[in-house]
Amino acid sequence: MTAQASRADRPRHGHAVVIGASVAGLLAARALVDHFEQVTVVERDELPDGPVFRAGVPQSRHLHVLLGRGLDLYSQLFPGFEAAMVAAGAPIVAWHDALWLNAAGWSQRYPSTIRLLGASRELLEWQLRTRVADRGVRFQTRADVVGLLASSDRSAVTGVQVLPRPSTGAEVQDLPAALVVDASGRSSKAGDWLAILGYPLTTEVKIDAFLGYASRRYRIPKDFAADWRMLVLPPAPPSTRGGVIFPIEDNQWLVTLGGYARDYPPTDDEAAFLAFAKDLRSPLLHQAIRNAEPLSEIRGWQQTANLWRRFERLGRWPEGFIAVGDAVRAFNPVYGQGMTVAAITAVALDWTLSDHRHRRGHDLGGFARPFQRLVGRHGADAWQLSTGEDLRYQTTEGPRPGRLGRLAYRYADRVLAVANGNQEVQAAFLRVIHLQDRPAALIHPRVLLPALAGRRAESLDDPPTASISRQPA
Description:
Blueprint: H1 3-8, E1 13-19, H2 23-32, E2 36-42, H3 68-77, H4 81-87, E3 92-94, E4 98-102, E5 105-106, E6 115-117, H5 121-134, E7 138-140, E8 143-150, E9 157-164, E10 173-176, E11 179-182, H6 190-196, E12 204-207, E13 212-219, E14 230-233, E15 241-248, E16 252-259, H7 270-278, H8 284-289, E17 293-294, E18 299-301, E19 306-309, E20 321-323, E21 329-330, H9 338-360, H10 368-378, H11 380-390, H12 403-419, H13 423-433, H14 445-453
Parallel strand pairs: 1-2, 1-11, 2-7, 4-14, 11-20
Antiparallel strand pairs: 3-6, 4-5, 8-9, 9-10, 12-19, 13-16, 13-17, 13-18, 14-15, 15-16, 19-21
């Protein structure tokens, strides 16, 4: 008997409800399906039958990066996921196929095990929806969750209140559940719902760098002959402007331009969009797209603040309810961390439910609060990385770093300057930003000693070619 079959034959809990068919919601549903008799995802949109845009995810028109650890975890949760995405046209991009102009200059291109999935959000969500549906997850669409059901003493959430859409003339319906998972994103009402049930108000931390970005799809030119597949030109203070070219399905580039401190790229004029691209720290992005065929309109986005609802700090928490994804901690999307943190959380949910069932059987008592604290810990490294970069701008609003934080910035700058010309240090740095290792890995002696020695990489006037692949003597 296979491990999967053995697991499926185990006794299960009753009904689980997931609020929202977001990426975090779909991944949570995948984790739940092995532990509950029925899993229902309640979604306010009508879900399309294919990889197409839906109004409830306006940000899907922009760049979504699945970091190195994320790709590994998606394949763990959904065996065959990577092959299916590639068959659907999504390219896999090795990091050494990227040109990266970071704050310390051009990075040398060393062989790397880091791989990224090049895909639109629409294609990714469609693949996830298809795969969880194949496992028996049910979708209740065109429905708003408007409140929580609770036990008579309000110590446990026992389901959700659902209002069909359109709501005119519709009646609220009760949907009982043994576990409710809020994956409704930044707009989550979880704090309000818990307050109605008598739980403490939730503290929120917000750090806003006032980043805005604009994206457009282009056909990759047939005569494009550069030796890179991805171009990464992040802003570096005092510069506020940056841009990325990322290959996605159907032989397309998804091009995103961004500006911090309200230096937003234009969305209403093609010439102005190209002029913004021309003003980046390197002319390569502008040169690549100036004669490329546009395949979409220019779309803007400005809801990029880092937001952390500190649920894990509440002294009281109901049984039968947890929150995940952006409903708990929303990152500045420019760093591409959200979809990977959602996968880390889903794997943790699966493991924690297995452990709890081993100890308590069908009784879910004592599960929710410890898991909510675990959610708080799992995204802490990504939060540190994203907010640390955003707080480099004096115009950023939010709690400023203390003395230790400022020392960490200076040390990170030294590591990056060395990493641009040191293969081992660069590999360690990349593993941290791709969430494969914790930031503490950067104080390992193999990183610490070169960084303290201050042997910065030689500054490159031109971007490196792919042939530069060995540690300099």
